[in-house]
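For concreteness, we quote verbatim a single protein encoded this way:
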Amino acid sequence: MSQEARAPRVTANKSAFWQARWDAPRKLVPFWQPLWKTDLYFLGISSIGYSRDASDTIPGGKNTSASALRMQAKDLPFAGGSLGIIKSQLRRQSGAGARRDGPRPFAAIIEAGMPRGHPLLEQVKLTATVKAAGCAAKLSPSVLDTVLRRLPQQIDNNVLVGFETSDDAGVYRLSGGLALVQTVDFFTPIVDDPFSFGQIAAANALSDVYAMGGRPISALSIVAFPEKGALEVLEQILRGGLAKMAEAGCTVIGGHSIRDDDMKFGYAVTGLIDPTRIWRNIGAQPGDALLLTKPLGAGVISTGLKQGRIPEAAVSAATASMSRLNRDAAEALTEIDERSPGTIHAVTDVTGFALLGHAREMAVGSGVSLEIDHAAIEYLPGAVAASREGFYSGGLRNNRQFIGDCVAFQPSVPEEFQNLLFDPQTSGGLLVALEAAEAEAALSALAVREVSARLIGRVLQKRSPLMEVK
């Protein structure tokens, strides 16, 4: 960039800066815009007036030289901690008809302790752009239950699995030995890294096919992205999704995108399945063992991440768990089912309605009750601490309100663990009901594939309460 094209610098004191913040902006440029146009340094998310004249008038101040505009950390009244100076970039207006005088707005990014020159993708915090992260953004299960009950029943003999039992995916028969399994899933960012967000969104969408016992073959991407969003961010989201789809052997053959201030990403996935060997979320039998193939706690960690209060190690562990495909778990279960046909009675993946929400669907659809041992469940590193800190999403509260009457907790179960069982998961593990005699064999097959599965409970004859946690 030539010196002539650089934005001029002007000096400003603290009071003038803050007055400019409120008085000058006519249009705040979203912070996710491409930010590589100049070398201004700021702390804070701010907008001030700017013109390319030789001097700049700052509201409430005086004409000042356009030689330097650099806000030092000591000049700004931030509470608590030292904040690094961030290189923010001015989105210059140019081209025919562009305004040549008067204030020009820009936005700056705030980051703690970030050195100058960090890439844009490290500066943008995706979770800060949305109200709810990941599957916690789902509609309340009570809302869906109310609406779906009102819809007319469809009659098609080739529909083997519809939405009547809130199963993980739909299954449509093509022939006597072949059927399609179809699902769709998309959500808002649950992590800050765009590539990881893409991977998690893909793994989450693929999970429904694995939970049914199918094999994914193709996918269509679903993108909602800010009109003025940084293309580098969108590219990395798509790259992450493609990488995970390639790992799954699933081909992305197209997609659809819309403009939306709230970023969203996901896939509609199509798979193949043997219509005689479909795993449903119903069919659990009294005496069955309950297995869970991933740890819980992604929801409280992502909620704490939005507030910047989760250790990096906890974020990394949650990201790794959410990014992992449920393919290995499904292959282990298939191995058991092929060796002892009919062993696997019910399977569902644990996502936005939490462990207890998806367990409830299994219990209601199967006509049974469930007993769950909270101490037998594996929790993500940092999840219990995050729950104690109260990092609860609106989705958790919705789940508890909807499911609460169906579950009884023994007095010995601490509140933080109770809430973790209502915590919305994103790309969670598989909840499996299988013959108790095969539980150890299943755990061994899962361990061979390095799946950290746990025996977390058992299936009982139907009684009240529907579910009990000890």
Summary: The chain has two domains: 1-123, 135-469. The chain has a mean pLDDT of 77. The chain has 13 helices and 17 strands.
